[in-house]
Every structure is written in structure tokens, then in C-alpha cells.
């Protein structure tokens, strides 16, 4: 199936076509359709499949290689990289999709979006020694007009430069990241707090009420992409995990 409308014409390639190709290949890799060691179709085959120029295909493959999802071997071809650690074993939920799946009406409010030069606290939170610019985002998610969670997120622009142009006023950052940025490893830290006055006001709960907190870091190889803290009203949320013995 071609993603281009003007097959075979380099002049017809749209600026975002290479991103569509990258995301399609990335999806095949992360879902296991193309497992580690799988040979990626040759460039001329991808050109035919997507109806685009060699330059467009090459740009998509270059980004996938930079993300450590594929490796390009001279004269041998391009292959899905064999990971040196477990990858894609942790599901990162999309809050918007979760709420919609419950049959409830999703709502989103961007409270604050700030782009700045990374300070010491930012670097410590991201777990990096050096970085340039970051985007700090505060937002609120709701279900049927009732506060569902508040989000405090930091995105490293050195690792995710395309985030600088993302419209987080209309699209939640978590949703945007899941659809645009490949990741290979994530970590959840789960804790509980009592709501201080700002948290209580944002979640429309009483000060001192219990809250569930999830702190998550997401990496691509050894590079932190984003750090996020999600705070949920404790009385209306719980975590359930089911395991089977060997």
C-alpha cells in the first residue's frame, strides 16, 4: 500500500512523508511484526511500496538508525537491531485512549507550556549531565468534566527536537509522544502522597486527600526522552496486575 498520492515522482513527496514511512516501519518493529534480525526491504523496494524518492526513504531509515531500532550493514542490507536489553515490555498508556475506552468523554486543558535552557534541576530529573533546551508542560486530563489526573512533564529537546513545534494546546503531550517518538525502555515508580493545596485545587479534591502518583522515565537507548509525573485522586484510582506462575 502506498502512502504517497503521486507514485514515483520525487517532486510529489510531501515534507512529512518520510515521517509516515518511519512510523510505519517503527510500528512493525515495536509490535513484533518485524522481529530482531529481520531484514528490512531494500531501498528500491520501499520506494515502490510507498511511492516516493530514494531520498525520502533514506531519511526515514536514517532516523530509525539514530533511534537504534535498525542497523544498516554495508552490502548486506538493513536489519532490525537486536536489543541489548529488554525493550517494549512495558505498556505506556495513553490517558485519552483510556478514558475514551471507558465510554467517558475526554477533556484536556494545557495549564502551562514553557521552553527554557535546562537548569540543574531539569538535568537531575532527566538523569543527564548535559542538555540544551527543554519543554516543561503542566496539564490536566478529565473524564466527563471531572478531573482525572494532572500531569507535570519535562521533554528533552536535544533528544526530541520535533517537540518544539508540537501543538500541545490541542493534543496531550503523552498522546503526541506515543504517536511520533519511538522509545525502547521505560520505568514506572509508583507512590502515594496527600494532596497539597495546589494539587487539591487542580483535582477538585480536599487538601490532605490521598493521591496515587506515577513517575515515569522513557528512554531511547541510553538517552532520556521525557520525565513525567502523573497525579490521580486516590479514592477513584487503583492499580491491578494479574500474574501466572511458571
Amino acid at each position: 500500500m502506498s502512502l504517497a498520492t503521486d507514485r514515483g515522482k520525487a517532486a510529489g513527496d510531501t515534507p512529512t512523508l518520510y515521517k509516515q514511512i518511519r512510523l510505519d516501519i517503527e510500528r512493525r518493529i515495536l509490535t513484533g511484526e518485524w522481529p530482531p534480525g529481520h531484514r528490512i526491504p531494500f531501498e528500491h523496494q520501499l520506494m515502490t511500496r510507498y511511492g516516493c524518492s530514494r531520498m525520502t526513504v533514506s531519511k526515514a531509515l536514517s532516523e530509525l538508525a539514530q533511534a537504534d531500532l535498525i542497523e544498516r550493514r554495508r552490502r548486506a542490507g538493513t536489519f532490525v537491531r537486536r536489543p541489548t536489553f529488554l525493550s517494549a515490555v512495558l505498556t505506556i498508556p495513553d490517558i485519552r485512549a483510556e478514558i475514551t475506552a471507558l465510554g467517558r468523554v475526554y477533556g484536556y486543558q494545557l495549564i502551562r507550556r514553557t521552553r527554557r535552557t535546562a537548569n540543574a534541576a531539569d538535568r537531575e530529573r532527566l538523569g543527564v549531565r548535559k542538555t540544551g533546551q527543554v519543554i516543561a508542560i503542566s496539564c490536566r486530563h478529565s473524564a466527563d468534566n471531572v478531573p482525572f489526573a494532572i500531569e507535570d512533564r519535562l521533554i528533552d529537546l536535544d533528544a526530541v527536537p520535533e517537540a518544539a513545534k508540537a501543538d500541545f494546546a490541542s493534543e496531550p503531550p503523552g498522546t503526541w509522544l506515543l504517536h511520533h517518538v519511538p522509545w525502547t525502555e521505560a520505568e514506572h515508580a509508583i507512590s502515594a502522597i496527600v494532596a497539597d493545596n495546589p494539587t487539591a485545587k487542580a483535582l477538585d479534591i480536599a487538601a490532605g486527600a490521598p493521591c496515587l502518583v506515577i513517575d515515569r522515565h522513557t528512554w531511547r537507548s541510553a538517552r532520556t526522552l521525557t520525565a513525567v509525573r502523573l497525579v490521580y485522586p486516590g479514592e477513584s484510582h487503583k492499580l491491578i496486575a494479574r500474574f501466572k506462575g511458571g
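The chain has two domains: 10-80, 95-236. The two ends are 42 Å apart (CA to CA).
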